Amino acid sequence: xxxxxxxxxxxxxxxxxxxxxxxxxxxxxxxxxxxxxxxxxxxxxxxxxxxxxxxxxxxxxxxxxxxxxxxxxxxxxxxxxxxx
Length: 84
Hints:
Elements (H helix, E strand, L loop, with lengths): L4 H30 L9 H18 L5 H12 L6
């Protein structure tokens, strides 16, 4: 009579195991699809900040050509018919 709790442990273990499997499956599927883990509690503000950060990082590493270069290029090279 002292081991009746053991009778309930097997179904409890099966249910807990299935919940763990489903949670991990969701995590790995999201990670494969998006390339990073799911950000829990990601609201509109967080999404806007991620977009802003991405634009800033891209603008830092994008080569910048000054308007002065284009002015010299079109006035100097095109008038003298020197083509690069």
